[in-house]
Amino acid sequence: MEARKVQKTGTSTITVSLPRDWVAGNNIKPGDTVNIDPLPDGSLSISVKFNTRREGARSVVEVEKGEPDEHLLRKLIGAYLAGFNIIEVRSRERMDLRTKQAVKEFTRMVIGPEIIEETANSVVMHDLSDPVELPQKKCVRRMHLIVESMHRDAMAAYITGDVELARDVIDRDQDVDRLYWMAMKQLVLIQKDRSLSERIGVDVFESMSLNTVGRILERVGDHAVRIARQAIDLADEPKEGKEWDDMRGLSGRSVEVLAESISSFFLHDISAANLVIDRSRELAEEGGRLMPRLLGGGGRGTMSRTAVMDSLNRTNMYASDIAEVAINDGMRLRP
After folding, report:
1. CATH top-level class of 136-333
2. Which CATH class is domain 7-48?
3. Are 160 and 152 in contact (CB under 8 A)?
4. How many CA atoms lie within 13 A of 241 on its CB side?
5. Comparing C-alpha atoms, which of 147, 149, 155 is closest to residue 249?
6. Residue 241, Ramachandran bin (φ over 0: left; ψ between -120 and 50: alpha; else beta)
């Protein structure tokens, strides 16, 4: 933070000088144009006129000898989420095949990075994703559509014992993760470059809310996977009777409430969001009444039924969480 004195030039013009290091770092010459953007907090953002993506944003990830693949993947995801568009994986010794396969697995786990250079001891990736083509709003909408279908299919697989459908639900979870990481990365990029928020039509406050909703949807997807795993483990268990029909009905209503919460969030509809929270509480009470009937028969499926009901309840409560974000945003945007 620097304090600079405001000066008056001429009869009415007020000026302040720019920091020397910032001018040099952005290669600004006399006569060049800069953008000056007033921000909601009363401050000003000054940027060069033609603000292109920083090709020099590079991260070097060192691979230690014997380092587990999981540790390397965590570091790569961290570099990706930090907004680096050039990521180099480097090893002091010759990189083994296992490590290179882990790097290639990373490129399949996220959206954008592609391998552009490979040597005996290094792999260089370039993130080709464009936030304008796949902005946060679109990421979150796609996440909702995917997790909704995952939840419906997971319950269908659980009730009918369809193992293949359950495995398909588990595979789809990676698509949800990829979209969430993309949305999370854009929050970081917006904080670094406020002009990006104008290009994708999302300010930093809405970006934070979108990131929160994306995280909630990612957890809903995790619970769909949890139900799918129970479907595989107890595929041969008979699931007939009114209590199973009631469980499927509760699942369908939970998905409906989730959709209503997403709608209220994007429309900034406070009244609709309050209705979602009220309905969510009613579904929680309905689940509480259904639980004893599901567990009354005992048997080896008792723990499975408990896990599935817990996931249904959490999906329902996550819808309530999204509705709360919708209310907070709606109040912030009110004149």
Report:
1. mainly alpha
2. mainly beta
3. no
4. 10
5. 155
6. left
**220-248 per-residue burial string, b: 16 or more CB within 10 A, e: under 16:** bbbbbbbbbbbbbbbeeeebeeebbebbb
Q: How far apart are CA 194 and CA 175, in angstroms?
A: 28
Query: What is the DSSP-derived secondary structure letter of residue 85?
Result: S
What is the residue whose two structure tokens read 């009220």?
278
Tokens standing for residue 289: 């009444």
- CB burial string 251-272: b at 16+ within 10 A, e below: bebbbebbebbbbbbeebbbeb
Burial letters for 70-80: b for 16+ Cβ neighbours within 10 Å, e otherwise? eebeebbbebb
Task: Quote the DSSP letter at residue 16.
Answer: -
Show the tokens assigned to 84: 């680096």
Give the SS3 label for residue 48.
Answer: strand
Q: Tell me the pLDDT tens digit for each residue of 190-235.
A: 888 777 888 888 888 999 999 999 999 999 999 999 999 999 988 8
Domain locations in the chain as residue ranges: 7-48, 58-127, 136-333
Number of residues that this document lists for the chain: 335
Torsion angles phi and psi, residue 49, rounded to 5? -65, -50
Its pTM surpasses 0.90? no
Q: Domain 58-127 - what CATH class?
A: alpha beta
Closest CA to 261 of 248, 250, 272, 247: 272
